[in-house]
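About this split. The held-out portion is used to measure sequence recovery: a designer receives only the structure tokens and must propose an amino acid at every position. Recovery is the fraction of positions where the proposal matches the reference. Here is one held-out target exactly as it appears in the evaluation file.
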């Protein structure tokens, strides 16, 4: 064999050389930090299955938002936990609801922060499903008006973007229509377009107190086996007016994320979900993995697969490292 003239290791020899030719880069502006807001006062409560992640009452958000902003993170997504739940999730569109309070608090502390709100009824319904019920079934069309009311209520409180995660058919069109009619035509929608019925959501359901009282969500969330159907879901949400489309979860669906990137020109988000976070934290606590190295590797893989934006519970710690690296 002739001596190789093309030696790829030449550009791996030093950190400076590797940095010059790095193809995929993480930046704090591409990371979105999830926040759990709980109705009440004086609450800062760590979530047992998600070390380092807490629930906050709106009045205790000031310090958290100041820290988030200081790390160079420019956006958060809010999930609300109300005191009272009912069959229709009416607290979701209460003008003084927990998310509405949190939006106003954040805008006082950091007016430039992009506040995204999760639009779904599961955290607000007494039965824990993502829509109103007809017997034991989730009624798709009857849910749409409630989701639209929720989105408008969040926007009236000051939200910059709404993110429907319920997986009802037609909800993007219903929300877009309601926002436009309400005078909010400039407010974008980030749709959970391909959201799979995943086992990776367990810690989130503890955090948001949103476990279904019966059954599961497989009649509206997607079958994990279906990649082609995911492309149909994404395409339909774009037709209905979605400005950003999302794949959730991220790690077990990198192939879906890659295909979505190749097919669609819209900005693409991915959700590095609670179970993915909890597994890393649990293994790192036992010394089985190196968290310092594995977190950027995971997030880089999501970015490399095609995500423009990553919702991740690692956003704060990762942003801090990126800021130091930039210095």
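Reference sequence for scoring:
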């Amino acid at each position: 064999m002739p001596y190789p003239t093309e030696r790829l290791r030449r550009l791996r020899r030093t950190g400076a050389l590797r940095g010059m030719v790095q193809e995929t880069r993480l930046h704090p502006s591409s990371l979105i930090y999830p926040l759990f807001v709980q109705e009440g006062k004086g609450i800062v409560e760590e979530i047992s299955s998600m070390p380092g992640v807490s629930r906050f009452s709106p009045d205790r958000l000031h310090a958290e938002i100041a820290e988030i902003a200081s790390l160079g993170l420019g956006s958060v997504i809010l999930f609300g936990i109300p005191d009272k739940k009912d069959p229709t999730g009416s607290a979701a569109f209460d003008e003084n609801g927990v998310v509405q309070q949190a939006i106003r608090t954040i805008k006082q502390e950091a007016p430039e922060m992009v506040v995204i709100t999760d639009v779904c009824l599961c955290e607000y319904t007494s039965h824990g499903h993502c829509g109103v019920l007809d017997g034991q079934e989730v009624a798709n069309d009857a849910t749409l008006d409630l989701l639209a009311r929720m989105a408008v209520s969040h926007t009236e409180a000051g939200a910059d973007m709404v993110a429907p995660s319920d997986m009802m058919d037609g909800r993007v069109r219903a929300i877009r229509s309601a926002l436009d009619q309400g005078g909010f035509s400039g407010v974008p929608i980030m749709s959970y377009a391909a959201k799979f019925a995943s086992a990776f959501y367990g810690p989130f359901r503890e955090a948001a107190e949103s476990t279904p009282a019966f059954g599961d969500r497989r009649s509206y969330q997607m079958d994990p086996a279906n990649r082609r159907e995911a492309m149909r879901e994404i395409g339909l949400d774009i037709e209905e007016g979605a400005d950003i489309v999302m794949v959730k979860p991220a790690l077990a669906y990198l192939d879906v994320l890659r295909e979505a990137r190749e097919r669609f020109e819209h900005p693409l988000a991915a959700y590095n979900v609670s179970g993915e976070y909890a597994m890393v934290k649990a293994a790192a606590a036992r010394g089985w993995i190196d968290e310092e190295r594995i977190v950027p590797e995971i997030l880089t893989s999501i970015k490399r697969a095609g995500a423009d934006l990553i919702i991740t519970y690692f956003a704060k710690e990762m942003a801090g490292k990126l800021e130091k690296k930039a210095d």
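Annotator remark: The first strand starts at residue 31 and ends at 38.
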